[in-house]
């Protein structure tokens, strides 16, 4: 088995919540040493987000935190203190990457801007993740997930065209931002190898959303037509849930074959996508009896057997039972000293015999002694004084 590709890489993780921690989780999974810097006494706010075992809040058992921080080391450090800033700068001297997802004004106000840290370590890659990016008139505006999806044009494209727009489930903008940050960080590290010069990677969650539905902006650029919500998929109830059926022109013959109704190919009500959309209720009336007699998986496998891209509305329980994930080793069990053994989604990246590091998330401040004494040479007495002074 080959060595992990990022073995020997040192990452300082100043991130919190979702987008930034996902980026550093992926770096840790590829073998980097990720030192997560957390607020003394409180830690990453994600520690207070559920789900929790038995619905009992515990900052060491948050499912959100445990998933997004696998493979990292945790230290506590008060960045609002002069001593805390000095300690962080000492860590920066030997680091390869620093990832942060504060509001753009924060790093500068702490005296940790890229221009300052670059002088300490010219090879340092700083990856900054924010709602709107480090520049521009929106730079310091506030936003939550739904605001990003709306401002990025995504919500205008999601949902039934006859009803109000919908948002994606969970924190899609954050997850996309974390993936973009990971990609940008890897590219910047390659540049360091080539030139010896670090740089700041600037990730905008808003731009990530716009880039994710690139066809709509390109349609407007080419034709001036504003894309709208439309029915490109049919969602039907079946015996035990719902299935999604493709409605694109080249899929229509396969759909009629699946339901055993070849006569629909000659029906003028359904001759093209526009007609099928216009006569959706009539089509639904014809197809529904066939659907409700069959289960989700029965329809799924029947469609796939003839090359029709049908899917079904899998629940989370269905995901844990699906043979595809087990066959690829995607689901992994990780033991945690406080939360016990939990099953986690793995990584969507597989690289032959190159291992992916699957180890637990850290306890708050678990690695203080290892980093402060072993790395920076502080004594246990120094640690006591720093703790009493609210620095760690």
Describe it.
The protein is of the alpha/beta class and 392 residues long. The chain has 2 domains: 231 residues, Crotonobetainyl-coa:carnitine coa-transferase, domain 1 (Rossmann fold), CATH 3.40.50.10540; 83 residues, formyl-coa transferase, domain 3, CATH 3.30.1540.10. The chain has 17 helices and 11 strands. It has a 6-stranded parallel β-sheet. A 3-stranded antiparallel β-sheet has the order 7-8-9, covered by helices on one side. Strand 2, helix 2 and strand 3 form a beta-alpha-beta unit. Helix 1 packs across helix 7 and helix 7 crosses helix 8. The longest helix is centred in the middle third of the chain and has 24 residues. The radius of gyration is 25 Å and the shape is elongated. It starts with 9 loop residues before the first strand and ends with a helix.
User: Helical amount among residues, as a percent range?
Assistant: 25-40%
Biggest pleated-sheet summary: 6 strands, parallel
* Number of helical regions: 17
Radius of gyration, Cα only, in angstroms? 25 Å
CATH architecture of the largest domain: 3-Layer(aba) Sandwich
Into how many domains do the coordinates divide? 2
Multimeric status of the protein: single chain
Please tell me the overall pLDDT.
93
Enumerate the spans where pLDDT stays under 50 for 5 or more consecutive residues.
none
H and E order? EHEHEHEHHEHHEHHEEHHHHEHHEEHH
CATH topology of the largest domain: Rossmann fold
């Amino acid at each position: 088995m080959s060595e992990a590709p990022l073995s020997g890489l040192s990452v300082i993780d100043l991130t919190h919540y979702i987008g930034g921690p996902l980026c550093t989780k992926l770096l840790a999974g590829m073998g980097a040493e990720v030192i997560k810097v957390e607020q003394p006494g409180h830690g990453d706010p994600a520690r207070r987000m559920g789900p929790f075992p038995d619905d009992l809040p515990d900052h060491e058992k948050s499912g959100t935190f445990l998933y997004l921080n696998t493979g990292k080391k945790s230290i506590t450090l008060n960045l609002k203190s002069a001593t805390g800033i000095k300690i962080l700068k000492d860590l920066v001297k030997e680091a390869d990457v620093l990832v942060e997802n504060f509001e753009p004004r924060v790093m500068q106000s702490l005296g940790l801007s890229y221009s300052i840290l670059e002088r300490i370590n010219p090879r340092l890659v700083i990856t900054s993740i924010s709602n709107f990016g480090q520049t521009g008139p929106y730079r310091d505006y506030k936003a939550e997930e739904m605001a990003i999806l709306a401002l990025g044009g995504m919500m205008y494209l999601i949902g039934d065209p006859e009803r109000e727009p919908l948002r994606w489930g969970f924190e899609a903008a954050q997850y996309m931002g974390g993936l973009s940050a990971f990609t940008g960080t890897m590219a910047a590290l390659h540049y360091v190898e080539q030139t010896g010069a670090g740089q700041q990677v600037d990730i905008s969650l808003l731009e990530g959303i716009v880039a994710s539905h690139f066809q709509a902006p390109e349609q407007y650029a080419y034709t001036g037509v504003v894309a709208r919500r439309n029915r490109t998929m049919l969602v039907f109830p079946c015996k035990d849930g719902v299935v999604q059926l493709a409605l694109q022109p080249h899929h229509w013959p396969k759909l009629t074959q699946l339901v055993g109704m070849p006569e629909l190919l000659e029906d003028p009500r359904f001759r093209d996508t526009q007609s099928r959309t216009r006569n959706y209720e009539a089509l639904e009336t014809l197809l529904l009896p066939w659907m409700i007699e069959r289960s989700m998986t029965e329809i799924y496998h029947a469609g796939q057997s003839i090359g029709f891209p049908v899917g079904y509305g899998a629940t989370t329980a269905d995901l844990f039972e699906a043979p595809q994930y087990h066959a690829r080793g995607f689901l992994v069990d990780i033991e945690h000293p406080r939360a016990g053994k939990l099953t986690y989604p793995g990584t969507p990246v597989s690289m032959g015999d190159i291992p992916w590091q699957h180890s637990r998330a850290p306890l708050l401040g678990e690695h203080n002694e290892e980093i402060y004494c072993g790395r920076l040479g502080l004594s246990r007495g120094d640690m006591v004084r720093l703790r009493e002074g609210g620095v760690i």
